[in-house]
Amino acid sequence: MADDRTRRLLDPDAALTALRRLPAARPLLDVVGPRDGVWLVGGAVRDLLLGIAPHELDLLVEGPVDDLAARLGPAVARHERFGTVEVEPRPGVRYDLARARRERYAEPGALPEVEPVDRVQDDLPRRDVTVNAIALRLGDGALTEVPGARDDLAAGVLRVLHDRSLIDDPTRVWRIARYAARLGFAVEPRTRELAAASDPTTISGARHGSELRLALSEPDPARVLATLLELAPTFLPRGFDPEPPGLDAALALLPTGGRRDLVRLAASCSGVALEHLLPWIDALELTSAERDVVGAGSRSSTLQPLRAARLPSEIQRAAAGAPLEVVALAGGPNARRWIEELRHVRLEIDGRDLLAAGVAPGPAVGRGLAAALGAKLDGRLDPARPAAEAELAAALSALAGA
């Protein structure tokens, strides 16, 4: 692998050759030549040089982007502040076009103030790490980089471009953790020092939330989060465990359609004290449903009734209405039985049947249906009666004895 990497890094045509093989690049290469001043930048160039197919193609333009955007296809998003346009030349293919720019941070964690520039070489120093500060010119495959970028790529090293990088934008610490985990790269000592000193409070919880979601979507999220804790422990709450006990069992229980990322996050937070956890998850701007799942891992009152249940009806009462992710977190045979069997049990009667039988509209209807379902789950229905008739009898009997 190292020999292949070195060969690609030394071959000026290797990245362009690899780009031409990508179906997503064809609309771009059909209309752009070397005189257009259009460069592929960032992680896409890094991945092409490593022999990895990039997921996104980010383009840098030495000048205004509108002309190129019009030639490529309809614009689907535009960000005037940063001089960027997102175009979709055909369904399923999108490009981010950005004008070359310098950035200045008025204060730590602020969004940058931008200044257009006309040369890609003046843009590259704003990148997060050296291995992402390599650009490939479309048309002829010319490469330009910040000093040492390809040396770091060949060595598998992550290095920030200047000492203020992680002060200006602490989200870069999250990105470095993702790159290290995904690529197997080492973080060089000075960058480690700067990451450890980075202040996570200078950026909003929403930005941390976005980075956390990206971390959880990685192929090996546990490795990303462990790397983040190693680099910058203050970015996650005290007690956070990237590889908590019981996680594999909970993920195995979770049915198709469940949020694996939320189960992982909730399990990782199970050792975090509530007084630390709740402000943290509120700051991340999670949805209320997401907060319920993540907070459940630290609240024994949420999970204990399900674990302690003995009868099927008790399992149903403990699990009904709870997100599947919370049930999977509880674990054990009761959770498995609920997910695989009991949650699929349905009554043949509904509220209209109780109303027709003389039950007054209101809460009693719900109580009667719950009693009928409990009797059905526990096998207490009269087997001599048709199912619907037996369910109705159980509901009316429970209401009469209330």
From TrEMBL:
Q: Which cofactor does it need?
A: Mg(2+)
Q: What is its EC number?
A: 2.7.7.72
Q: Please provide the Gene Ontology terms (biological process) for this protein.
A: tRNA processing
If you read the UniProt record, what top EC class would you report for this enzyme, in one word?
Answer: transferase
Sorted alphabetically, which keywords does the UniProt record give? Magnesium, Metal-binding, Nucleotide-binding, Nucleotidyltransferase, RNA-binding, Transferase, tRNA processing, tRNA-binding
Does the record's keyword annotation contain tRNA processing?
yes
| Source superkingdom | Bacteria
Annotated Poly A polymerase head domain ranges read 38-159
Gene Ontology molecular function terms on file: CCA tRNA nucleotidyltransferase activity; metal ion binding; nucleotide binding; tRNA binding
Q: Which InterPro entries match?
A: NT_sf, PolA_pol_head_dom, tRNA_nt/polyA_polymerase
Query: What Pfam families does the record tag this protein with?
Result: PolyA_pol
PANTHER family this protein is in?
A: A-ADDING TRNA NUCLEOTIDYLTRANSFERASE, POLYA POLYMERASE
User: Which family is this sequence assigned to?
Assistant: Belongs to the tRNA nucleotidyltransferase/poly(A) polymerase family.
Name the UniProt record assigns to this protein: tRNA nucleotidyltransferase A-adding
